[in-house]
Design a protein that fits this description.
two-stranded antiparallel sheet; alpha+beta; ribosomal protein; Bacterial_rp_bL28; 2 helices; 78 residues; single chain; elongated
Length: 78
């Protein structure tokens, strides 16, 4: 499972881990990904979404129906 938000599109960032002596090694900044289950009333079923923490807050603000519509508009599977 990749660290990717279905709603906001957040994905890992890449950079360097810098030691005290300033040696650089590659590292990965993963978003805070959560697996949440929501009731989708229009289809009469639950949907399981992979969301970042910001995606959860966005979903709470706009509602499940609008969020699922956005995900489907981006070509995502719900």
């Amino acid at each position: 499972m990749s660290a990717h938000c279905q709603l906001t599109g957040r994905s890992p960032g890449f950079g360097h881990r810098v030691s005290h002596s300033h040696r650089r090694t590659k590292r990965r900044f993963d978003p805070n990904i959560q697996h949440k289950r929501y009731w989708l009333a229009s289809e009469g079923r639950h949907v399981r979404l992979t969301l970042s923490a910001k995606g959860v807050k966005t979903l709470d603000a706009i509602g499940v129906e609008a969020a699922v519509a956005r995900i489907r508009a981006r070509g995502g599977k719900v």
